[in-house]
Write a sequence for this structure.
């Protein structure tokens, strides 16, 4: 089986964040208490749909919502150590966007990557960095209310 065959050619529609009019900055997506350890939430009102979870190390991470294998919602998956495991075929994704485990495969396909989102916490609130051009997060960037 080739890498091409392992990655679904058509996935659920992931909104294009480049089409957003939001300015660059940190967008509040939840309260810290809404995402306890080993839980994941789905965020639909961001410029694209994302999943945000808290790993066993208490760190928050974010990825595009839909699994790059065959499109399952990763928010329905399970936090496994500090990664998130897809509910459909159990591919496990790290916060850096790399698939880091496929239970039934000897090799992880090179194309098994997804977009990651920088997440931070401040004063009991959870923020995700957004920049239309995917510029790296500015730790001192402006904060906005998405919710
Ligand atoms: S849809 Fe197959 S592992 Fe996610």
């Amino acid at each position: 089986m080739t890498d091409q065959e392992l990655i679904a050619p058509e996935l659920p529609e992931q909104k294009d964040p480049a089409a957003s009019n939001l300015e660059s900055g940190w967008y509040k997506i939840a309260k810290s208490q809404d995402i306890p350890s080993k839980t994941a939430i789905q965020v639909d009102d961001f410029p694209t749909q994302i999943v945000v979870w808290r790993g066993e190390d208490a760190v928050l991470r974010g990825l595009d919502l839909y699994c790059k294998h065959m499109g399952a919602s990763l928010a329905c998956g399970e936090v496994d150590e500090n990664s998130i495991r897809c509910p459909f075929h159990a591919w496990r994704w790290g916060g850096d966007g790399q698939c880091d485990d496929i239970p039934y495969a000897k090799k992880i396909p090179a194309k098994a990557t997804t977009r990651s989102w920088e997440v931070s916490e401040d004063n009991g609130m959870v923020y995700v960095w957004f920049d239309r051009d995917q510029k790296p997060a500015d730790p001192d960037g402006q904060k906005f209310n998405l919710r």
User: Anything to note?
Assistant: The two ends are 44 Å apart (CA to CA).
